[in-house]
Amino acid sequence: MAGAPEWRFDPLTGRRVLISPDRADRPRRIGPICPFCEGHESETPPEVLAYRDHGSAPNGPGWRVRVVPNRYAAVRLDAGAPWTPPAPAIGPVPTPGLGVAEVILESPDHETHFCEVPHSLVIEVVTAWRERLRHWRTDGRLAFAQVFKNEGAGAGASVEHCHSQLIGIFFVPPAVAAEIERVGRGPCAYCRWLGTTRDGPCAVVESDLFIAVCPPAPRFPGETWVLPLAHASSFEDIEDPELNDLAVVLQDLLVRIRRAFSDPDYNLIIRSAPFRHDETWHWRIELLPRTTTPAGWEWGTGELINTMFPDQAAALLRAAG
Ligand SMILES: [Zn+2]
Ligand SMILES: [Zn+2]
Q1: Residues within 5 Å of ion ligand 2, judged at the Cβ atom
Q2: Could you tell me if 260 and 316 are in contact, meaning their C-beta atoms sit under 8 angstroms apart?
Q3: How far, in Å, are 8, 24, 46, 145 from residue 5 at the CA level?
Q4: Relative to the alpha carbon of 273, which ligand is closest?
Q5: Which end of the chain has the lower number of beta carbons within 10 A, N or C?
Q6: Strand 144-151 versus strand 163-169 pairing type
Q7: From ligand 1's centre to the CA of 114, what distance in Å?
């Protein structure tokens, strides 16, 4: 163990960075030897959730979807003395990198594309995302958690076997807090936006319960969001009958992105409300195909350049169905 993770703050730039030395030790596993395949359960920490075939024992073969603590966690619950939210996570004194990090293994077989994972497993993956978010919300110690997925080395994946991650921390990230602030209380701005976008040129595909749309200011060509048509602020409140519908839309959209943008690496991000939340928010899943690479201009200014208008991307994605 190289050292406990810490948030470091630069008072000149106002920039905060999580320094997490253990992350440097994580193996890059692109190839035939895979710690996430069935039969390699001893290479991960003991599971905290698994959907298993009847009669199979924990931490052995027989699972379909499996959740384990991240062995190379960016944040840890034992990173330092606990502080009570809402403690200042920003300031000149290093703050312990407190939090939780989990990995969701999305298939017992060595699948590398989530859009090719059997549909029944995709439903169980979505269910596992919900259950782990519910678990940590009920636990009460964390302020915020995010489920995300990096597919492909260009999107940050160090293991190619299909997996997603959950990271939970003790404060609400400023970017999330700022969006909540901007949306404000009262009637939901996202619901109003969906009302005008639904039949417009940026809509991609719609099911009974969900819609996929390209957002007004996409960061990458093909950036697409999946939102529930009915207002809901927390992903983890999704009900059982909705899971299949979401899995269908998600997989359909991933296939379209693969066809329309030449099989790009991508990030999937669940933007759900903070755990202690009483204001307006409308959860969404963001899909970010890594079709371009932020470079010097973007690092220097924080201003992103995209090469494709959202209605053009939506037209490509509609045609790719
Ligand atoms: Zn594998
Ligand atoms: Zn809404």
Answers
A1: 188, 190-191, 231, 282
A2: yes
A3: 10, 12, 22, 17
A4: 2
A5: N
A6: antiparallel
A7: 13
Kindly state the tokens that stand for 207: 């099911």
CA of 292 to the centre of ligand 2 (A): 30
The first and second tokens of residue 320, run together, are: 């790719």
Please tell me the distance between residue 157's alpha carbon and the centre of ligand 1 in angstroms: 13
> Do 197 and 203 form a contact (C-beta atoms < 8 A)?
yes
Indicate the pTM of the whole model: 0.94
Ligand 2 centroid, distance to 280 Cα (angstroms): 7
State how beta strands 266-271 and 284-289 pair.
antiparallel
Give me ligand 2 centre to Cα 234, in Å: 11
Nearest ligand (C-alpha, residue 159) = 1
List of E strands, 140-281: 144-151, 163-169, 203-206, 210-213, 224-228, 266-271
Nearest ligand by distance to the CA of 37: 1
Helix and strand totals (H; E) in the chain: 6, 13
* 284 has pLDDT over 70: yes
Q: Which of the residue ranges 72-86, 120-134, 189-203, 263-277 would you say has the lowest mean pLDDT? A: 72-86
* 182 conformational bin, left if phi > 0, alpha if psi -120 to 50, beta if neither: alpha
* C-alpha of residue 163 to centroid of ligand 1, in Å: 10
CA of 32 to the centre of ligand 1 (A): 8
Query: pLDDT, tens digit, for every residue of 143-186?
Result: 999 999 999 999 999 899 999 999 999 888 888 999 998 888 88
